Amino acid sequence: MGATGVEAEHVRRSLILAVFLLIVTPAPAAAAGDPNVAGLQGALRAQGFYDGPIDGIEGPRTRAAVVRAQRRARLVPDGVAGRLTRHALRVRAFAARTLRPRSTGSDVVALQFALAWRGFPSGELDGWYGPRLEGAVRRFQRHVGLRDDGVAGPETLRALRGPPPRAPALRSWPLAPAVTNGFGPSGDRFHSGIDIPASTGFLVAAAAPGRVAFAARAGGGWGRLVSIAHRGFRTLYAHLSRIHVRVGQRVRAGTPIGRVGASGRATGPHLHFELRVRGAAVDPLPALP
């Protein structure tokens, strides 16, 4: 089979895969959860009562974990995290105190969760104010125009209650439209983009016109990464097997920029696609046509 035939076969298989995944892929979360609920889930997890995702949603799994905690504390097992239950679990309310490096507790989990939904995830939602969380706080503070001191004081905590940045419209999908892992909470972490499935070697295209700002292997699990600067935002394409563009190159929407792979921290071939607005990660799905 010639080169043209191979590309045609890739396209055919990609379309079949996309149709299948559009049927089986669940819809993305409609809204962010509550940081206070995320803090409660973090406290329940730390004490061995909860093994679900830290998603800030007070669903059946969270209520069942609260019941287990209440029984352990010899409280009425009604599944409601009231004052006595929160006291027994040592749960602090979000934004009730200033948080700084080396702080610990459920309100630190709530801070990590709120930062992630505003586009500045800091890794594991573990309730420890370490260097990664301090860096995320500083980036958020610069994003909203506050002094970047790395301390989550009243102004920073108040700013975290605001809405996330709006996603700009993108021109096209970088691959056939399908999503296997959406933007939002994932276990005890936060997924700051979307995963688009495809076999190794499929062409990845620019989602909007712009200029290539980065095109090389990157640390932090990204693998081979292309970052494209657009007017007021950036798109990122990670885990590539090959890169077809160079830094400074101008691209149009639909220009091939690389090929699908599993470089970096990836369990299999797919494209991890992110959208950043002034440094903040936002859900790219509503921006895609």
How would you characterize this protein structure?
This protein is an alpha+beta fold and 289 residues long. The chain folds into two domains: 35-159, PGBD-like superfamily/PGBD (Muramoyl-pentapeptide Carboxypeptidase, domain 1, Orthogonal Bundle), CATH 1.10.101.10; 167-287, Glucose Permease (Domain IIA) (Distorted Sandwich), CATH 2.70.70. 30% of the residues lie in helices and 20% in strands. The protein has helices at residues 3-24, 35-46, 60-72, 83-89, 106-117, 131-144, 154-159, and strands at residues 184-186, 189-191, 194-197, 203-205, 210-218, 223-230, 233-240, 242-243, 250-251, 256-259, 270-277, 280-282. The strands form three sheets. Strands 3, 5, 6, 7, 9, 11 and 12 form a seven-stranded antiparallel beta sheet that branches. Strand 1 (184-186) and strand 2 (189-191) form a beta hairpin. Helix 2 (35-46) crosses helix 5. The model is unreliable at 1-30 (pLDDT under 50).
Q: Gist?
A:
The chain is of the alpha+beta class and 289 residues long. Helix content is 30%, strand content 20%.
SSE order and pairing:
Elements: H1 3-24, H2 35-46, H3 60-72, H4 83-89, H5 106-117, H6 131-144, H7 154-159, E1 184-186, E2 189-191, E3 194-197, E4 203-205, E5 210-218, E6 223-230, E7 233-240, E8 242-243, E9 250-251, E10 256-259, E11 270-277, E12 280-282
Helix pairs in contact: 2-5
The averaged pLDDT comes out at 91
The major sheet is characterized as: 7 strands, antiparallel
Element-level helix/strand string: HHHHHHHEEEEEEEEEEEE
Shape: elongated
The number of distinct structural domains comes to 2
- In terms of per-residue confidence, which ranges show pLDDT below 50 for 5 or more consecutive residues? 1-30
CATH superfamily of the largest domain: PGBD-like superfamily/PGBD
The gyration radius over C-alpha positions equals: 21 Å
Q: How many strands in all? A: 12
β-strand amount: 15-25%
The secondary structure category is alpha+beta
Which CATH first-tier class of the largest domain would you pick? Mainly Alpha
